[in-house]
């Protein structure tokens, strides 16, 4: 089982192209979304400067990609001075070309930038984007296997010569590019803060998490899980806590609640059916656990999630096996 792929699928991370920019000289563009979403910029030609929430502007060279998971508003520009003068109400004139590209700046195009954003299912507490630093900068020369650069080149070809269904191709490619950025970030050491991502670097914990994902309804104990992966209970407890920051039982409960939350919102399954699917002996036992984890009973959660399209803050789950 591919843990990263499974979490991306459960949290329903989806990208979409927000703007295709062809920029000349001396320009500034303000990037914002109606709702906070992760933003990504890939430079396919020329250079661009990005204003960061904290710190000096960042220069992006051809082939560079920057991911800002927190969705903070920021400026893009031709140079640091252009970034400094650009804000929500102070940006340069621009227009949309016949191909749907944003044209900005003076003179002929010198830079091409693809801007994308990513949304995710907020009913799920097991996330990827929320665990990343404020800025992930993948330089063209730091791409370990060149796959991100291959994707940027494909993006550049679509941007330079739009054809039928170019928008579909670009949306699919930005999803692929996100995975390559995540791979590169993980390969570079990722973060030292404990989270489920730590399982990707520890074969014992990875095996344990995989077994929990494969059989979430099984009546797991930490001892039984330790036997499955061939270590002592003490070893599993220690390594699991060191890498993920929680016990196997707490992780399993949170994962079960994530699976249940999706089924509550997306199906008409009964509480008893959902309870059985995620390892509880009755709808009553499941309701108690769900209310403890999400601070509301399953029925109310189902109604609210459907009314609000699932855009709810995820709760914390701390119960253990």
Please state the overall shape, judged from the principal axes of the Cα atoms: elongated
Lateral strand order in the biggest sheet: 8-9-1-10-3-6-11
Structure annotation, total helices: 11
What percentage of residues falls in helices of 4 or more residues? 40-55%
Number of strands: 11
Radius of gyration: 22 Å
Beta-strand residue percentage? 15-25%
Task: Specify the biggest β-sheet.
Answer: 7 strands, mixed
Structural class: alpha+beta
Give the terminus-to-terminus CA distance: 23 Å
Mean pLDDT, all residues: 90
Ranges where pLDDT stays below 50 over 5 or more residues in a row are: 310-321
Q: SSE order in H/E notation?
A: HEEEEEEEHEEEEHHHHHHHHH
Show the helix and strand layout.
Blueprint: H1 3-10, E1 14-25, E2 28-31, E3 38-45, E4 48-50, E5 58-60, E6 65-68, E7 74-77, H2 80-85, E8 94-96, E9 102-104, E10 106-119, E11 136-138, H3 147-160, H4 166-187, H5 203-214, H6 222-229, H7 233-244, H8 248-266, H9 271-277, H10 283-294, H11 298-307
Parallel strand pairs: 1-9
Antiparallel strand pairs: 1-10, 2-7, 3-6, 3-10, 4-5, 4-7, 6-11, 8-9
Helix pairs in contact: 3-4, 5-6, 5-8, 6-7, 8-10, 8-11, 9-10
Describe the protein:
With 321 residues, this protein is an alpha+beta fold. The chain has helices spanning 3-10, 80-85, 147-160, 166-187, 203-214, 222-229, 233-244, 248-266, 271-277, 283-294, 298-307, and strands at 14-25, 28-31, 38-45, 48-50, 58-60, 65-68, 74-77, 94-96, 102-104, 106-119, 136-138. The strands form two sheets. The protein has a seven-stranded mixed beta sheet with strand order 8-9-1-10-3-6-11. The longest helix has 22 residues, at 166-187. The model is unreliable at 310-321 (pLDDT under 50).
